[in-house]
Amino acid sequence: NFEHILFHIDSGVATLRLNRPKQLNSFNLKMHGEVREALKQVRQSAEVRALLLTGEGRGFCAGQDLDDRNVAPGAEMPDLGESIEQHYNPLIRQLRDLPMPVICAVNGVAAGAGANIAFACDLVLAARSASFIQAFCKIGLVPDSGGTWTLPRLVGMARAKALAMLGERISAEQAERWGMIWRCVDDEALQDEALELARHLATQPTTGLALIKRALNASAGNTFDQQLDLERDLQRLAGRTEDYREGVGAFKEKRTATFKGC
Ligand code: T3D
C-alpha cells in the first residue's frame, strides 16, 4: 500500500511507477522510503526476474523535491551529504546490485537525480518527447546519484563535463545518438515496448543475465587481467545453472528453450 509509487508484479516482471506527477515525480522522503521498500521486495521475491522502472504523468523524475529544502535567509542549511548517504546512494546501489535486468522507461523529462537514476538502470528506453537534464549546476550543486561516474563512461569526458556544467536539456534522440540510452521510441509505444522488453528478459536465463550485469558493472574498476579472472569465475557459476543445461539441450534438440532463471 504505497502513496507515491505504483507497484505490482505480473508475469515475472515487477513494475515500479513513480507517482507524484504534479511534482514531476520528484523525490520526497516518503517516496524514497517506498521505492526502497519496493526494491527490497523485488530482491526477495522468488517470482520476479526483471524490473521495469517508469514514471506517471508528463515527467519521469525531476530529482529532489526542492519544496522540501528550506534555504530561506537565516534558515539552517540542510545537510545534503546526509540526504545522499541516507537516500540517493542506497537507491542507486539497490538498482545496480539487483541481480536481474532493470529496464527504465523514461516517459518524460528526467532532471537532476532523476536523470542519473535512469542512467543507473541496465536498459534505458525513452519516449521521443522525453529529455535529460543535469540540472544540478543550475542550483549550485554537483551531479549525484552516480552521475559523475556514469556520464563520462557513457558519453566521454568532454561531453560529460559540458552536460554537467551547462545543464542543457538533451533530447531523447540526442541521448540515443550519444549512447546515453539504449533506444528512443515513439511516445505512444513506450510503455508497451518497455513492458514487452521486460517480459522477454524475464523469460530468459536471468541468473546468467545477472552475472552479465555483474561483469559489466565491475569492468570499469578492473584491469584487463582482473576482468579475465572475473569472467572465469562468473562463467563457472553460469555453467552450473539449470538454464545452461536447458540452453545447450534445446540447441542440440533444435527446440525452443524454456528457461527458469536458475
Ligand atoms: O537535496 C538533496 O537531497 C541533494 C540531492 C539532490 C538531487 C537532485 O536531484 S538536485 C536537482 C533537483 N532538481 C532540479 O533542480 C530540477 C527542477 N525542475 C526543473 O528544472 C523543471 O521543473 C524541469 C526542467 C524538470 C521541467 O520543466 P517544465 O517547464 O517542464 O516544468 P515546470 O513548470 O518547471 O514544473 C512543473 C511542476 O513541477 C511545477 O509545479 P507547479 O508550478 O505546476 O505547481 C514545478 O514547481 C514542479 N517541479 C518540478 N521539479 C520540481 C518540482 N517541484 C519540486 N521539486 C522539483 N525538483
Please describe the structure with a list of short key phrases separated by commas or semicolons.
about 260 residues, alpha/beta, 2-enoyl-CoA Hydratase, Chain A, domain 1, 2 domains, six-stranded mixed sheet, 10 helices, 10 strands, about 15% strand, globular, binds ligand T3D, EC 5.3.3.18, Enoyl-CoA_hydra/iso, isomerase, Enoyl-CoA_hydra_C
Task: Describe the fold and architecture.
The radius of gyration is 19 Å and the shape is globular. The protein has 10 helices and 10 strands. Helix 1 (29-44) runs parallel beside helix 2, helix 4 crosses helix 5 and helix 8 runs antiparallel to helix 9. A 6-stranded mixed β-sheet has the order 1-2-3-5-7-10, sandwiched between helices. The chain has 2 domains: 5-202, 2-enoyl-CoA Hydratase, Chain A, domain 1 (Alpha-Beta Complex); 206-252, Lyase 2-enoyl-coa Hydratase, Chain  A, domain 2. The protein has helices at 29-44, 80-97, 113-119, 147-155, 157-166, 172-177, 190-202, 206-219, 224-238, 242-252, and strands at residues 5-10, 13-18, 50-55, 59-61, 102-106, 109-111, 123-127, 131-133, 169-171, 183-185. The protein is an alpha/beta fold and 262 residues long. Keywords: Isomerase. This is 2-(1,2-epoxy-1,2-dihydrophenyl)acetyl-CoA isomerase PaaG. It comes from Azotobacter bryophylli.
Please give a quick description of this structure.
The protein contains ten helices and ten strands. It has 262 residues and is an alpha/beta fold. The protein starts with a strand and ends in a 10-residue tail after the last helix.
